[in-house]
Amino acid sequence: MGPGREFQSNRKKFWMVTGVLITLFVWPWAGVRAANNSTATATLDEPSADKVQEIVQKFARKETEFRRARELYNYEQTVRIQTLDYGSHVDGEYQMVTDVTFGRDNQRIEKVVYAPQSTLERIQLTKEDLDDIVHLNPFVLTSEDLPKYNIKYVGHEKLDELTAFAFDIAPREMVGEERYFEGRIWVDDQDYQIVKTRGRPVYNLTKRTKNQRFPNFETWREQVDGKYWFPTYTRADDNLQFPDGQTVHIREIVTYKKYKQFRSDVKITYGDTVNEPEKKKNP
Asked: 107, 88 in Cβ contact below 8 A?
């Protein structure tokens, strides 16, 4: 996701962000816990090849329902993007806080509530950057999108307090100007929903995008209302190497919080009939 930037000359909360967020931005984030090394091994049962295919189909169905469910919620989105010099000193910053709602026909409506003047000078944010924040950072792999991707099972892993199935994802082919995700996802082995994403955007180069560069990113999800795993935190920290030889160190944080359901007339279920879970208070 994020800065395509052109160079200018319990199970509800299982992530705890390390001190990086606080030290970089003096921005406390108590409701999310960063995963321990996600490649750590654990003695977990490995599914058969047939079971893996069943898992893929199952989590894709749940991701389809998740996408619908998220359009029933208002939330606050905060974006902060910084450039850093060689001494890790912040020399430019972009911030925006937006209240996000969904209107008729699930149209996304954004109301900017805080947007100080950007001081970025060495990069220029592009339409692709902003689109990635909306679509690629909170990556969703629905049943409809499955045919677009090659999916490789990696293993059954312990992910902090969770256990999850890990999959490597890459587009089968890139069509037109569509943007795709390439990287790894972790799927909770009980709820069959994506709980973590790590990767980067990939796309066909065009005249408009050939000089743009985008960082690798990680996105974590958190359980909301006891049933939906919604994205809550995205982080990127990368060196963008531009065609003219310039390298720019960027850091980016996107948070999605204050989820509140505003449309209760639609009931979302995940295919099978389930008992209504005990209500949990939103963070």
From this structure: no
pTM over 0.90: no
Do the Cβ atoms of 250 and 81 come closer than 8 Å? yes
Amino acid in the structure at residue 79: V
Contact between 162 and 146 under an 8 Å Cβ cutoff? The reply is: no
Distance CA 232, CA 51 (A): 30
The encoded tokens of residue 224 equal 């909301």
Residues 6+ apart with CB under 8 A from 43: none
Q: Sign of torsion, CA 61 187 189 74?
A: negative
Burial of 62 (0-12, 13-18, 19+ CB in 10 A): buried
The phi-psi region of residue 26 (left if phi > 0; otherwise alpha if psi is between -120 and 50; otherwise beta) is: left
- Euclidean distance between CA atoms 179 and 139, whole angstroms: 11
Radius of gyration (Cα) for the chain, nearest Å?
A: 19
pLDDT tens per residue across span 109-165: 999 999 999 999 999 999 999 999 999 999 999 999 999 999 999 999 999 899 999
Query: What is the distance between the terminal CA atoms of the chain, rounded to a whole angstrom?
Result: 26
Which region, left, alpha or beta, applies to residue 69 given φ > 0 means left and ψ of -120 to 50 means alpha? Answer: alpha
Residues 6 or more apart in contact with residue 68 via CB below 8 angstroms: 266, 268
Kindly list the distances between the CA atom of residue 182 and the CA atoms of 47, 141, 169, 222, 282, in Å, as whole numbers in the listed order: 23, 12, 5, 22, 31
